[in-house]
Amino acid sequence: MLDRLNQVMEHIEDHLDRPVDVAELARGAATSEYHLRRMFSALAGMPLSEYVRRRRLTVAGAEVLAGREPLLGIAVRYGYGSGEAFARAFRTVHGVGPGEARRTGTALVSQARLTFRLTVEGSNSMRYRVVDREAFTVVGFKARVPLVHTGPNQAIIDFVRGIDPQRMEPVEALSDQEPQGIVAVCDDLDPSRAEGTELDYYQGVITSAPAPEGTTSLPVPAGTWAVFTTSGPAPQAIQYLWRDVFTQWFPSNPYRSRPGPEILRTHFFPETSEADAELWLPVEREPGRGGPGPASGPAGEAGESAR
């Protein structure tokens, strides 16, 4: 997968002065557009669209400083319909407008070309299993919250604290499927996975029972899931687990992510910040890649985690 991502980087670099079709990039990488965006965001720490914009304006910035072409000509070549639109985008990246940059020769911001390499650190194995599940339903309480990549998500904390325990008790009693007990479910995330974009967050259970009055249900179709486990300080251990899944597990296994909710069951230890966590991610087999099929047996190991 990393080789294919590097081919995507080469294609982008060769097409900075043309529109970039992410669906075409995904086809060239023999994967889905959804998985390509997910992988890139996890590995690069920014959405694919943001990387393309930064690279495009890095190259355009060099041409602005060179002073050999009118600013409008540079703007049009790099996909901006007007000088004003180009100036706004230029200022967002470089902190200065193109006209001022050309007059003063000021220093600009450069987005380096990205190359992906697999780096293994530490000696902790990632524990996982792959299971096929029939359709099920998430039942609970729902809020629209921003995506936070690192550290506590205050919007989620406030939402969960605001749920009356007496309303949650009958919901918890409906849990009759894995993962058991109260779970956190994230759905309808923005494809860019950019920090600050919004998602649907559910605090509820996995069940076959109908939703009680005053709750929300999320039907989830049958499919394959990869289930990962970790232990450590929360939320850092959970956020590191999500990172490791995309930087270590997906490149090493014949699966790719597919659209669907992400499910997290967390058990906190009393009077500590430590927790056990189980992360369920919807996956599908990558076409043309070998490897063992889904199984609901004992957890396997997927190489080294990037601890």
Q: What's the story with the biggest beta sheet? A: 10 strands, antiparallel
Helix content: 25-40%
Strand content: 25-35%
Roughly what is the average pLDDT, rounded to an integer? Answer: 86
Whole-angstrom Rg: 23 Å
Number of helices: 10
Low-confidence stretches are: 291-307
The H-and-E topology, N to C, reads as: HHHHHHHEEHHEEEEHEEEE
**SS-derived structural category:** alpha+beta
Number of strands: 10
Shape: elongated
Distance between the termini: 21 Å
Describe this structure in words.
The protein has ten helices and ten strands. The chain has helices at 2-14, 22-28, 33-44, 48-66, 71-77, 83-94, 98-104, 154-161, 165-172, 236-252, and strands at 125-133, 136-146, 183-187, 198-207, 216-220, 223-233, 255-257, 262-268, 274-285, 295-304. Helix 3 packs across helix 10 (236-252) and helix 4 (48-66) packs across helix 6 (83-94). Strands 1, 2, 3, 4, 5, 6, 7, 8, 9 and 10 form a ten-stranded antiparallel β-sheet that branches. Helix content is 36%, strand content 27%. It is elongated, with a radius of gyration of 23 Å. The two termini are 21 Å apart. Mean pLDDT is 86; it is low at 291-307. With 307 residues, it is an alpha+beta fold.
